[in-house]
């Protein structure tokens, strides 16, 4: 197999140039546009020739595209030119200011030399001229020059293919340096995760500028020579069942997303007759949310079993941009969880117990290790490796782990240079907490997000999960819990989006939330904020940015509809 993505595209084109590569559902319903592997190579070569005239190999090029096939050909065109692709979230044309400010920060950080844009997004160039970091950058639209004008650059496995910018849940944006060998290494791990299928069809609505969407659902089908069908995240969010309808329409075998995607579909399951969907082809429904919500996954499988969805189809996995994507994965037919004693877990120990034990809490299984992967659980303070059953920071080593962050030596050293005694490998410090049991990883939370209440570790996602199950007027994925200091020490604050503004309803919801959290988690909510929809800040993949949302709240940037609590 080819040792670069450029070579991989060319191999696919030579082996079956007329074979379907990618399709995009333009309107989210019926208008399907497609490209073959041969056409993909031709378009990528044409864009590569154009870029080769403007940007030297190794230069950074921002990709500012709405979801669609143009983004894919532009991405591969960057690789064919030997330049570094830098996907960014496209600003909203109607209100470009905030989006352009984000693009400007990325441009300044990576030293961008050009912007590659679609005919639609290139209209932002005029507004970008008023942003200092973007002023003077050429905005280029792919042209139709002959592909034979392309001259292959010196692209090697160690060449930088892309910078994956991630805002993360707790920090400022950083560009993860991903080389061709990193990406191909992770695609091989994904092949293990999916069971190395001989044939298949990938379906996705995930954002193309994010690692799960780009690597997991665009590059993986290229790696396997499969067909891929895509739709816009906006079309999915507007009507989530479009995702399942596309799987049914094309016989999708691999697809997935965060827990909230399965939740949204489950809530709308009654809106579609079971016989209108055929999900029997679906073999791997991956769930890479942080954390995996087992209740949601079970409800999803039950809701769509009448449409042919088989038990055990939804499987958990764990990954992050710094590792390209996948670190561990649970495969079909393997156990999805284990039960441990709640009190001991709060003390940093996972003691397995019977599921029926009233003291039990269920942990989702993030799976085992692909070949070549090494995961250790480490005491973050001392750097000492912990045994099975002990909760600590997850450290990972794999061929797909990046070399570091673009031009950030201090952050790179802190995150990527971890060492363990008597080992030759360097490890990525993920910042996540987890435990290993019998060679399988169970993620328990973010180290930086953990709240310590009276000596007990409390994970924000547990508080958020309980609160959002109280009432349908509490938006799923629309809450963040964080630490707050009061007279008696550290406590838990919760900010939750609601769909009502009625004062009496707000008071009732507040009482129900605090009661539910206290009953389920044995932790009082020191302060509760009920806020309008879309108040919680999120990463490009939809994860809540807890620290950033907390800061926005404290800076008066979030409207508060109702508040309870006695912490000042």
UniProtKB/TrEMBL annotation:
The protein's matches in Pfam families, at most eight in alphabetical order, are given as: AMP-binding
Describe the location of the AMP-dependent synthetase/ligase domain by residue ranges: 24-406
Which key words are in the record? Ligase
Instruction: Enumerate the Gene3D superfamilies for this protein.
Output: 3.30.300.30, N-terminal domain of ligase-like (3.40.50.12780)
Q: Which residues cross the membrane?
A: none
User: Ligase among the record's keywords?
Assistant: yes
Where does the UniProt annotation place the signal sequence?
none
One of the entry's Gene Ontology molecular-function terms is: ligase activity
For the keyword Ligase, the answer is: yes
- SUPFAM superfamilies according to UniProt: Acetyl-CoA synthetase-like
Source taxon at top rank:
Bacteria
Please report which protein family the annotation says this sequence is part of.
Belongs to the ATP-dependent AMP-binding enzyme family.
Instruction: Enumerate the PANTHER family for this protein.
Output: DISCO-INTERACTING PROTEIN 2, DISCO-INTERACTING PROTEIN 2 DIP2 -RELATED
Report the protein name in the record: Acyl-CoA synthetase (AMP-forming)/AMP-acid ligase II
